[in-house]
Amino acid sequence: MPGFEPGDVVKVPFSYTDARTTARRPALVLASAGPAENSGLLVWALMITSAENRGWPDDVPVDDLALAGLPAPSVVRCAKIATLDAARAEPLGRLSPDTLDAVRVRVGAILLMA
User: The domain at 8-113 falls in which architecture?
Assistant: First the structure.
């Protein structure tokens, strides 16, 4: 089973809001935990989407597409987080340290608002 670190970009099955439809899409590993008894490694992942989509207030642009393994301009959607099975994740690349820091600041701000 692969291990992932914060900052890794992976391709994972991500559920749409209606929870009936999933698509394999890029995501940023924010944290990983496990393995717990009778389960595998889990990752907290943030959706990565095309920069062409309508922006959200907490989106963070990906500054190095080649490093991240992404084919087109993209943003990390900090408001869309999921807990996923790491065994279903395919490694793509990594975010630059500057972009990862910006994501952490935005996620921290979202959590403090709760």
Answer: Roll (2.30)
Show the tokens assigned to 42: 């889990």
pLDDT, position 36: 55
User: How far apart are the C-alpha atoms of 94 and 92, rounded to whole Å?
Assistant: 7
Distance between CA atoms of residues 43 and 63, nearest Å: 23
* pLDDT digits 0-9 by tens, 42-56: 899 999 999 888 899
Q: Any alpha helices (H) in the chain, and if so which ranges?
A: 65-68, 97-113
Predicted TM-score of the model (pTM): 0.87
Per-domain boundaries in the chain: 8-113
3-class secondary-structure state, position 43: strand
